[in-house]
Amino acid sequence: MPLAESKKALVEGLFATHREALQTFFYRRIRTKSDAADLAQDVYLRMLRVTDVDGIRNPGAYLFAVAGNLLKENAAKDRREGRGMAVGDYLTEQQPCGPPEGEHALDDRKRVERLREVLMQLPPKCRAAVVLRYRYELTAPEIAEQLEVSIFMVKKYLGQALAHCRRRMARLG
């Protein structure tokens, strides 16, 4: 089998094995969820362009390294084009669609609004850590990578944020 065909077969096999995990990887990390399949396809195309496939010791790990790099490139592109989501955007996009039902509707709306205010009082990286953890369900290492801080700092930010929210929300109660 010619070299180009064997490389294509290797990449296709690798992609077939990891496609679902790759799409899930992107789905958990991007704002526009419908782009996950397209990003996975971009990884496939990049893998086809690799010249020395035989030099790859762990193809699965390499595949996800390519995916991670693609994710960073897209995030940088989004920031350059002004499409990146600021941390405060999450708070404003979470407005309820309509009035909540039930006798506690007004109380619930007040609590949600108060929580938004309390979160906006946090320093930006602390607030970002909260949003990434509780909205996007990222792990501490993933948050550390996104914020370019240590895992220890992520845990410190989350602890500070939770303590701040408890204190401020208790005043409401």
Explained architecture:
Mean pLDDT is 78; it is low at 84-100. With 173 residues, the chain is an all-alpha fold. It contains eight helices and no strands. The chain is elongated, with a radius of gyration of 21 Å. It has two domains: 3-80, Rna Polymerase Sigma Factor, Chain: A, CATH 1.10.1740; 87-172, Arc Repressor Mutant, subunit A (Orthogonal Bundle), CATH 1.10.10. The longest helix has 25 residues, at 3-27. The N and C termini lie far apart (72 Å).
Write the layout of secondary structure elements.
Blueprint: H1 3-27, H2 36-48, H3 59-80, H4 87-93, H5 105-120, H6 124-134, H7 140-147, H8 151-172
Helix pairs in contact: 1-2, 1-3, 2-3, 5-8, 6-7, 6-8, 7-8
Based on CA atoms alone, the radius of gyration comes out at 21 Å
CATH topology of the largest domain: Arc Repressor Mutant, subunit A
Q: Report, as a whole number of angstroms, the end-to-end distance.
A: 72 Å
Which architecture name of the largest domain does CATH use? Orthogonal Bundle
CATH class value of the largest domain: Mainly Alpha
Question: Uncertain segments of ≥5 residues (pLDDT<50)?
Answer: 84-100
CATH superfamily of the largest domain: Winged helix-like DNA-binding domain superfamily/Winged helix DNA-binding domain
Arithmetic mean pLDDT: 78
Number of strands: 0
